[in-house]
Amino acid sequence: MGEKLLVKNIGLLQTPVGSECHCGAQQGENQKLKNAAVLCEDGKITAVTADGALPAGSEGAAVYDAGGRLVTPGLVDAHTHLVFGGWRQGEIPLKLRGATYLDILRAGGGILDTVRHTRAASEDELFEKSRAFLDEMLTLGVTTCEIKSGYGLDLETELKQLRVIRRLNDEHPVDIAATYLGAHAIPDEYKGRADEYVDFVCQTVIPRVAEEKLASFCDVFCEDSVFDVAQSRRVLEAGKKHGLRPKIHADEIEEIGGAGLSGEVGAVSAEHLIATGERGMEAMRRGGVIACLLPQTSFYLGKTFAPARRMIELGIPVALASDFNPGSCPSFNLQLSINLGLLRYQMLPEEILTAVTVNAACACGRGNLCGTLEAGKQADLVVWDAPDWEMVCYRFGSNQTKAVVKNGRVTER
Ligand code: IZC
Ligand code: ZN
């Protein structure tokens, strides 16, 4: 008989339902069960009950008493750059003197600074550093996340970063979706030769990443002074040819057409979308692209916030993620994205829960595995030190989890 866990005495169980991403009015639909219980077996949910009933087959299970608290699905962080060398606190004086994110990158700092540190770090150093981040993320309620490469830019270091991601997925309880982001910046050795760097990404690195099965997704930083739409299209099409599903950093700073491209290439998700206008959103809607919004980055860069309400109105599925990276968002606390989703996107609490669970799971290609509390899904749950989800959206700055269940195993704080 397998390992069984019964989570009982759940005051309120709140979850979206299904394995597909939710858009429009559906984004705001959550199932709410009172006095609920969840039975887990061998890391999977086998039954969910309400109104004080206990699932059949609960006998002999280890019991976790939720004490009348709120339980939701484990959170999914669909956009991180979690594996990197160094940090970038040295940019503070430049920022205080008025330098922007792109000014710093154009001067050879920013991403390129992180590239230098990541190239210099050993695989083990990167692994240990990243593992500590994941440990803390798990206590914050994140049970699945996406991680991008993009701090190597050369073949050797990109593969090193992707191998670290694979090892984290193998050894850490948090499940990880890997994304190859070779087209993240133009490395020094290709300065002024962006098209040649794109050739290298398409012809040399993508085939290798695909052959070694080191990533499921291919991403590109489509941005002023980085990769234009034509170059981004080349990268994403080359990825598709090798079975890597497209994602795109679009309209983070300037609207140069990234959202439109996401619709044309059939991207799984477009990310940031701070500067996206109606045409870009229309292309996303037609292409069924998930909008992966990163409000902590808007906050940290002092930018405006993506038009989340308009996206929901148009029927674009919205996910919220952290964007954890050493430059524009040195935070992996997804609870802060939840708070900003409420305060700055004016999303409803139910819409936010969908955005950090099932829609984010779909952006990671895992809607069938996680993101809701239903029989057959992974037993990934958060027990919140809160009576309802509104409380989680409303309080900020503290970790509001009480316990996190990952694959049927409880981590109590
Ligand atoms: O390291 O600056 N926006 N890429 C695109 C980033 C932020 C990560 C970084
Ligand atoms: Zn990013």
Q: How do the strands and helices of this protein lay out in sequence?
A:
Elements: E1 4-15, E2 31-41, E3 44-49, E4 62-65, E5 70-73, E6 75-77, H1 92-96, H2 101-106, H3 111-120, H4 123-139, E7 142-148, H5 155-171, E8 175-183, H6 194-211, E9 217-222, H7 229-241, E10 245-250, H8 258-265, E11 269-272, H9 278-287, E12 290-293, H10 295-301, H11 308-314, E13 318-320, H12 334-343, H13 349-356, H14 358-363, E14 381-384, H15 389-394, E15 401-406, E16 409-412
Parallel strand pairs: 1-4, 1-5, 6-7, 7-8, 8-9, 9-10, 10-11, 11-12, 12-13
Antiparallel strand pairs: 1-2, 2-3, 5-14, 14-15, 15-16
Helix pairs in contact: 4-5, 6-7, 8-9, 12-13
Bound molecules: 2H-imidazol-4-ylacetic acid (IZC) and zinc ion.
The site of 2H-imidazol-4-ylacetic acid has 11 residues, from α3.
What can you tell me about this protein's structure?
The protein is α/β, with parallel strands linked by helices. The mean pLDDT is 97. Helix 6 links the parallel strand 8 and strand 9. It has 2 domains: 4-74 and 371-412, Urease, subunit C, domain 1 (Roll); 76-363, TIM Barrel. 36% of the residues lie in helices and 23% in strands. It has helices at 92-96, 101-106, 111-120, 123-139, 155-171, 194-211, 229-241, 258-265, 278-287, 295-301, 308-314, 334-343, 349-356, 358-363, 389-394, and strands at 4-15, 31-41, 44-49, 62-65, 70-73, 75-77, 142-148, 175-183, 217-222, 245-250, 269-272, 290-293, 318-320, 381-384, 401-406, 409-412. Bound molecules: 2H-imidazol-4-ylacetic acid (IZC) and zinc ion. Zinc ion (ZN) binds at residues 79, 81, 249, 323, 325.
